[in-house]
Amino acid sequence: MPAKISSPTETERCTESLIAVFQKHAGRDGNNSKLSKANFLTFMNTELSAFTRNQKEPGVLDRKMKKLDLDSDGQLDFQEFLNLIGSVAIACHESFMKSASSQK
User: Fold this and answer.
1) Of the candidates 21, 31, 36, which has an alpha carbon nearest to the alpha carbon of residue 88?
2) DSSP one-letter code for 77
3) What CA–CA distance (Å, rounded) separates 7 from 10?
4) What gap in Å lies between CA 64 and CA 62, rounded to an integer?
5) CA distance 9 to 91
6) Other C-beta atoms lying within 10 Å of the C-beta of residue 58
7) What are the start-end ranges of the E strands in 17-83?
8) Do residues 76 and 42 make contact, with C-beta atoms less than 8 angstroms apart?
9) Average pLDDT over the chain, rounded to an integer
10) Which site in 13, 60, 64, 91 is 20 to 30 Å from 49, CA atoms measured?
11) Whether pLDDT at 93 is above 70
């Protein structure tokens, strides 16, 4: 009897989605292992547009890219990209927790 293949968990699906989004944006210039500055800006303006729209300060995305680019190669690898996703998730979680505690 063949082994039963289980459906991916929600966490596994989310991980697959993050990989797919990274590769989609990184692959725009033929190198799907790094996100160029132009591809980073496209990613931010399409996938995180709420964050981008709320920025009043010019140059904030350039500074964000520099801060994330730990090896200073002008591109974001997948680990550096995950640092961005992690910081967004933390900010969203903190906002949710603050909102939940103020509703009590």
Assistant:
1) 21
2) -
3) 9
4) 5
5) 24
6) 7
7) 35-36, 75-76
8) no
9) 90
10) 13
11) yes
